[in-house]
Amino acid sequence: MMFRKTNFTLFLLSFILITACSESQRNQKSISQNQTSEVNDTTVIDVWNGSRTSARRAHEREVLVAVLESTEDEYGLWKLKEHTEDYHGDRESHAFEEYDHDLFVTVAGNKKLENEEKIVIPEAIMQGILGYRILIIREADSAKFANIKSEEELQQLRVGIPDTWPDASAFRQSGYNVVERGTYDDMFERLHNNEFDFTALGANEIEGVFADRADEVRGLIMVDHLLIYYPFPLAFYVNPDKPVLAERIQIGMDKLDENGVLEEIFLKYNEELIDRLNLRERTVFKIKNPILPEVMNDFESSIPE
Fold first, then answer.
1. What count of Cα atoms within 13 Å lies in the side-chain half-sphere of residue 31?
2. Residue 270 and residue 155: Cα distance in Å, rounded?
């Protein structure tokens, strides 16, 4: 009798032990599945970052990364899928519908996207430094430009702007003689060929242009004492099918503005450049920007002292 009771006790203990092991394995499997689910739930964000200099591309990317990092607690993990091919002409306007990108950065109020569905985040990414336009001229004309003292004198000359660039509206409305044709890729050749007298590029891009396109700009120089300024903020444009991403970008931009990270990133890329280009000491001609969206009508850039 005692033998039977002992066997039953051993059987019961073995059953309990096996059951406990099975439950532990199920729990471990559940944890593993949850961890895999978290990895699979990482949001892949398709961003177009082409048709810009490498310096501007790096600046925009760092702002976006900071925005996404600052919102991980609310929206989860993320991964960028970046495209850097150039879109010429109006191809930029097809970034969402045709190329299926999730977001990209462009000038606020870009006319090429006027009739396209999009969500615009009305926050300036680079404090508007793209609106500080530095003149590029033929070196042979340096004496002529050195003698320019007034905006009226500059307006008598021809400014070259690639076809579809949003700058053209600002210059025309302010009385400049605009030659709008061609592309960014042939702009310097056309300046060499005397099709216009000068062009003007953003202060944050101009050094990169002279470094990356050395052969094309040979014989061209930057004017070192004049500056054309207009409010020209860059903003995130988000695919209209991605409202949650747009919400995340807006919240992240608010955070970066409040905690000072946005300005830190700006100074990282532009503080020394502002000094090298002597932006604070130039003669400035201010013009209006007619394409600013209403929500950013009061935007003005200011270079940190």
1. 6
2. 29
Residues near 10 by beta carbon (within 8 Å), at least 6 away in sequence: none
User: 161 has which bridge partners?
Assistant: 180
Strand, helix or coil for residue 190: helix
Identify which of 109, 83, 107 has the alpha carbon closest to the alpha carbon of residue 95.
Answer: 83
* CA end-to-end distance (rounded Å), the chain: 97
Burial of 110 (0-12, 13-18, 19+ CB in 10 A): buried
- Domains identified in the chain and CATH numbers: 41-128+233-275 (3.40.190.10), 130-229 (3.40.190.10)
d(CA 163, CA 179) in angstroms, rounded, equals 9
Residues comprising the chain, all counted: 305
CB–CB of 159/199 below 8 Å?
yes
Task: Give 2: exposed, middle or buried? Use CB within 10 Å, 0-12, 13-18, 19+.
Answer: exposed
- DSSP 8-state secondary structure symbol assigned to residue 111: G
Return the higher-pLDDT residue of 27 and 115: 115
Q: Residue 118 carries which DSSP code?
A: -
What is the model's pLDDT at position 241? Answer: 98
Global confidence as pTM: 0.84
Cβ density class 46-70: b for 16+ within 10 Å, e for less: bbbbebbbebbbebbbbbbebbbeb
Q: Tell me the C-alpha distance between 142 and 220, whole Å.
A: 9
Residue pointed to by tokens 């700058």: 167
For residues 236 and 244, what is the distance between their CA atoms, to the nearest angstrom? 14
Give φ, ψ of 125 to 5 degrees.
-80, -35
68-80: pLDDT as tens digits: 999 999 999 999 9
State which H helix or E strand residue 119 sits in: strand 119-121
Pair 226, 135: CB distance under 8 Å? yes
Please count the other Cβ atoms lying within 10 Å of the Cβ belonging to residue 229: 20
